[in-house]
Amino acid sequence: MDESMMTLRRLLAVHDEAIIEAGTAWVRDAAAVDLADRPVAETRGLVAESVRAYAALLLDGDPRPRDAFIERVTTLRSTQRFRISTLLRGLFSFHRALEPVLARHSVPHHLAFAILRRVDAACSEAAFLAADTYARKLHAVVDEAQRELVRREKLAALGGLVAGVAHEVGTPLGVAITAVSLAQDCLQELSDAFTAGALRQRDLAGGLGRAREAAGIGLGNLQRAAGLVAGFKQLAVDQSSESRRAVALGAHVHELLASLAPLYRRGPHRVEVDVRADLVVTTYPGAIAQIVTNLLHNALVHAFPSGHVGTVILWIDRSADGQVELGCGDDGVGIAPELLRRVYEPFFTTARGSGGSGLGLHIVHNLVTDLLCGTIRAESTLGRGARFTVRFPAHAEA
Questions:
Q1: Is residue 188 part of a domain?
Q2: DSSP alpha helices (H): ranges in 31-108?
Q3: Which structural domain, as residue segments, surrounds residue 186?
Q4: Which value, to the nearest 10 degrees, does the dihedral of the CA atoms of residues 315, 318, 323, 329 take?
Q5: Residue 246 located in a structural domain
Q6: What digits encode the pLDDT tens for the residues 22-36?
Q7: Distance of CA 17 to the CA centre of its chain
Q8: Alpha-carbon distance 363 to 351, whole Å?
Q9: Residues 216 and 311 in one domain
Q10: How far is the C-alpha of 11 from the C-alpha of 20, rounded, in Å?
Q11: How far apart are CA 207 and CA 184, in angstroms?
């Protein structure tokens, strides 16, 4: 141990209480707002513990008391939590209190300078460590709060999804049950008439016709319910089950469009594909198919009200930042600004009475952001159509 540290050891052995008292007075004066209503003993304890920590560090080379002190005083749940500014003053109080003690006891200048230089370095290091520790703990609390908010939002969304599915599926199931019950009654009437020997050909034809109509209604509504359930299952798409491979995107979209012909061939609307860049990408073709299907179906259902004939264009291009761009645009009625902000919400639809479930664009958003690691942007002007632009990396992550 050099002469300066030997001098510091002697001073602390004799004058440690005086140093602690001076440090306490300086901290309380400098942090008067924070400490006005807090007992002096509390501040004194802070200063005393910091002095002992510095003594262990400077005289014995042991940083553990300092680290334990910083860990304790930066605990966010502490009932004696100080402002960070007060805590930093407590860490510098040793230096401030030591200066007059050195002067009062006529410590030679070169020794006093060496002591203060070592103490100043220790105080600065402790202050930086305390700030880093405090920030780390604060960030951990914020991250945990964010995770909890996300968890609660997911639970709330799940509750909304379940309620939406129950509502959406309940209607077609109720109609199907009524229709099947009607068909059963018709068949029972025919059976009773046949057993009684009173079944006439006209009654048979009428009864079978009613039963056939009821069965058709029931089948149609059961198919609608099955489609809703399938859409709900798609919301939780399992990424690990989706195959990833190289795809010529232009050819793939043309093939998809051919398979989707029943969506638009019977109607008056025209669907076109514009391959602006012939790209081969390594991605998830199943997700691309789902995205294209939902975007096209959404345009055909919502863009063109009765009597309005229009065009839907699917395009493929490379964006300015080198990503793949897959878009769908129409020249339909457009989307109002207040609705455009909600188009990705589950079960949000403006076509509730005409078969819309509100699942399509929510599924698209999940596939683009979660599976393709991309983005989707919706743009629209009332009366001038809508555009949905999907951008994603050319090589999707496995």
A1: yes
A2: 32-35, 40-60, 64-73, 84-104
A3: 164-235
A4: -20
A5: yes
A6: 999 988 888 887 788
A7: 54
A8: 17
A9: no
A10: 12
A11: 10
